[in-house]
Design brief:
Shape: elongated
Radius of gyration: 35 Å
Number of helices: 1
Structural class: alpha+beta
Distance between the termini: 110 Å
Strand order of the largest sheet: 3-2-1-6-7-4-5
CATH architecture of one domain: Beta Barrel
Strand content: 25-35%
CATH superfamily of one domain: Copper binding periplasmic protein CusF
CATH class of one domain: Mainly Beta
Length: 133
C-alpha cells in the first residue's frame, strides 16, 4: 500500500538531483559604460520644464479676433498676448473670447513666454461695477 507513493517520491527526487547536476547558463554580463563616452541627447531625453508662469494687470487696449491677440496697457508698456489657448473669465463666469472686445476694461492676464511670444493661459476681466444711480 505504501510502496507506490514511495516509488513516486524516489523517482521525483532522482529527477531533481539529475536536473540539479546540469550546468545553469547565466546571461552574459553587460559591458560597463565607457567613462569617456557622454550620452547623446537622443539616448536620454530630459523632461521639458514647464514654462515659467507670469501675471500682469492693466486695461484692455484692443482685441484682434482674426489674430487672437489681446493688447493690454500696463505700467510697463502695451504687451500683446496670444489668447487662442486662453480661458476667459468675467468675474467668476467663464465666457467666450469675443468678450475680450472691451477697450478700457480692467484685466488680469496669466501667461507664459514661448520663443519670445507671450501666450495667455487665462484672462480675467473685472466685472463692470454696479453703482447705484
Amino acid at each position: 500500500m505504501f510502496a507506490r507513493p514511495l516509488a513516486v517520491l524516489t523517482a521525483a527526487s532522482g529527477l531533481a538531483l539529475a536536473l540539479g547536476a546540469l550546468p545553469v547558463q547565466s546571461p552574459a554580463p553587460s559591458p560597463a559604460p565607457s567613462p569617456t563616452a557622454s550620452p547623446s541627447p537622443e539616448a536620454s531625453p530630459r523632461p521639458r520644464k514647464p514654462p515659467k508662469a507670469h501675471s500682469t494687470s492693466g486695461t484692455i487696449v484692443g482685441y484682434d479676433a482674426k489674430q487672437w491677440t489681446l493688447t493690454v496697457k500696463t505700467s510697463k508698456g502695451q504687451p500683446a498676448f496670444a489668447v487662442d489657448e486662453a480661458l476667459v473669465w468675467v468675474g467668476a463666469k467663464s465666457v467666450d473670447a469675443s468678450e475680450l472686445n472691451r477697450p478700457g476694461a480692467k484685466v488680469t492676464v496669466k501667461y507664459y513666454e514661448d520663443s519670445g511670444r507671450k501666450v495667455a493661459r487665462s484672462v480675467r476681466i473685472a466685472p463692470a461695477s454696479t453703482e447705484p444711480k
